[in-house]
Every structure is written in C-alpha cells, then in structure tokens.
Amino acid sequence: MSKGIVLASSSVHRRELLKNAGVDFITESADIDERSVEAPLEGSGVSPDEIAQILAEAKAVDVSERHPQSLVIGADQTLSLGDTVFHKPANMEEARRALLLLSGQTHHLNSAVVLVEGGEVVWRHTSIAALTMRELDPGFVGRYLAQCGQKSLTSVGGYQIEKEGIQLMEKIEGDYFTIIGLPILPLLKELRARGEIDG
C-alpha cells in the first residue's frame, strides 16, 4: 500500500517530469539554506556528486519532518568543471564569466535523488552527464545572454539545455533526465520495487 509521495522541490522541471510519468504526489519545498549546507564541504575533499547527494538528502530530511509517514523524494544537482562547483549566477556578469569559463571545456552535471522515510534515507542514486561546450566567441556570449535575459540566472552555468542553451553544446554524454536534474528512470524503478507505483 502506498504511503504517499512528497516531492521536496520547488523545481518546475522536476514536478513536470514526475507528473508526466503518471506519479501521484504532492510538492513541498524544503526550508534549508543550500549554501549554508554546502559551505563546510568546501575544501574538504567531498566530490561535486557527493555535494549534490548531501543537498538532496538535506532537502528530503527537512520535508520528511513534516511528513513522517510519507516517502519523500529529494533531488539536487551540481555543475562541476574539474573540482570547481558552479552555482546559479547572481547577475548577468556572473553568467557571462561562467559561460566563458565553460567554453571549449567538458563539464559535468551531477544529479542526485534520494528517498527518505521517517527522517531516514532509505535509497539514494546519483547520475552524471558530461557536456562539452563548443568554443564560444565573447561577442556571441553577450548576444546569447541578451537574448535569454533573466532566464540565464535561473540555471547553474547560465544556460538551459532544453531551450537556447542547446546552441552552446558540441557534445553531450548522458540522459536528458540527468541533465534536467532528476534521474527519473532509477527513481521509478525504486518506486515500483517499493509498491509505491504500479509495475
């Protein structure tokens, strides 16, 4: 018998992915400061994919305190270039700098998803996608950001792959769902195994 599923996320994309998959769930955003959770990890040797998992767990555990009988899904994503972790740009200048740093490089999107029940993590998974950005002319970056506007500030790295951001890419290795920020195939498999969805 299903315990009820709660998605601990305010992400429109994650909600849409679950909804489109036919999963019955409610949404509640976590009340945590992600940068405060992440700050002690800097310089500690924790990898970018582990940071994504720690953030996903923190979100799910927080929401689980208000829904102890439910199965809570937590998800988070980091963008890394080597050991450097990128965050959402605070302004257009930060977005411009991020795109120029990523230009001609292969960076990784590390997407973590966890299930928490009664405040305890009962399952976790991380998927990684490798994206190679083409060499970008600084003039093009300026025009690209002018075209995208404030949308550039809503995604890590200053681009949205499902929109104009695809024009920045030369090569992509990894599935679409990992890139969007929710490795949904392993999540659905686990939900089926737990009897939370029909299968």
Give a summary of the structure in a few sentences.
This protein has about 200 residues and is an alpha/beta fold.
Please characterize this protein's 3D structure.
By secondary structure, this protein is of the alpha/beta class. It has one domain: Maf protein. It has helices at residues 12-20, 34-38, 48-64, 92-102, 138-148, 176-180, 184-193, and strands at residues 5-7, 26-27, 71-81, 84-86, 106-117, 120-133, 169-173. Strand 1 (5-7), helix 1 and strand 2 form a beta-alpha-beta unit. Helix 4 (92-102) crosses helix 5 (138-148). The longest helix has 17 residues, at 48-64. The model has no long low-confidence stretch (mean pLDDT 93). It is found in: Cytoplasm. Belongs to the Maf family. Nucleoside triphosphate pyrophosphatase. May have a dual role in cell division arrest and in preventing the incorporation of modified nucleotides into cellular nucleic acids.
How far apart lie the N and C ends? 13 Å
Order of helices and strands: EHEHHEEHEEHEHH
Number of helices: 7
> What is the C-level CATH assignment?
Alpha Beta
Rg, rounded, reads 17 Å
Strand residue content? 25-35%
Q: What shape does the CA trace take?
A: globular
Protein name: Nucleoside triphosphate pyrophosphatase
Enzyme class: hydrolase
InterPro entries: ITPase-like_fam, Maf-like
GO biological process, one term: nucleotide metabolic process
Summary keywords:
single chain, 199 residues, alpha/beta, Maf protein, 7-stranded mixed sheet
